[in-house]
Amino acid sequence: MTITATEISTGETTETARAAGAGAVTPESAGPRPSFLPLIVDVAVPVGSYYLLKNGFGMSTMAALGWSSVVPAVRTVWSVVKERRVNALAALILLVNVVGLGLSLVAGDPRLMLAKDSGVSSVIGIGVLVSVRLGRPMMTQGMKPFLVKGDAARAAAWNRLAAGSEPFRKAERTFSLVWGTVLLSECVAKAVGAYTLPIDTMVWLGTVVTIASMVLAFLVSGRLAVVPMEKMLEHELAAGAGTHS
Q: What pLDDT was estimated at residue 4?
């Protein structure tokens, strides 16, 4: 998950491929859990803790946002100090929480409070789209473990394609582009609904819109990016096997 598009295009790719070819144990060859753990810590823990603290323990929105910001804040500072790089997902979730805290200071309008929830999708969506523009598609960090499957040969094939295949890199960008666009569209739909539909209707409809958006993003990004990338990976694996035989 910590391999970005920029890192893949550097000499680190050669070292990873060499290690995989020599049968060395890399983080990705050790199994799928190390790849999924950062995604769980960066996204699932802060988001899940927010809803648990707010709905399960009855905390105020501000208190829930504040406490759920602890993990991404620690992760962001740790990555800067220890790893000398910015953990994009942790920093983005922290930014979302900070924005939410700021919006929570505005009270008294129930429709504004409903529209506030769409701010989460908008900030994440914009962050994902900016990452595509910068050549570091953020959603790759969540997609790569599903395609690599903890296999060293597949990881080496991924690195070779990311370094030398423009169609592969384009599909990688498309995956993040689809998710960023869907998240922004969800934000617009929920914001419009918050001010045009009855409040009681929007309370449950907002959840429906979120679920529908996630399903749509999975289907479209899978068809346009994941499936082509998996085929390219299989072809690269076959070509690599033929070269070594």
A: 35
d(CA 60, CA 187) in angstroms, rounded, equals 22
CA distance 39 to 141: 8
How far apart, in whole angstroms, are the C-alpha atoms of residue 44 and residue 25?
Answer: 27
Other CB atoms within 10 Å distance of the CB of residue 172: 24
pLDDT digits (tens, 9 = 90+) for 109-121: 667 766 766 776 7
DSSP string of 149-180? Answer: TT-HHHHHHHHHHHHH-HHHHHHHHHHHHHHH
Q: Contact, 1 vs 41, CB < 8 A? A: no
Asked if residues 136 and 2 have their Cβ atoms less than 8 Å apart, the reply is no
Structure tokens at 102: 């700021």
Cα torsion angle, 104, 108, 114, 118, sign: negative
How much is the pLDDT for 196? 92
Q: How far apart, in Å, are the Cα atoms of 134 and each of 98, 137, 138? A: 23, 8, 10
What Cα–Cα distance (Å) separates residue 195 from each residue in 23, 120, 204? 59, 17, 15
Which residue has tokens 């033929």? 242
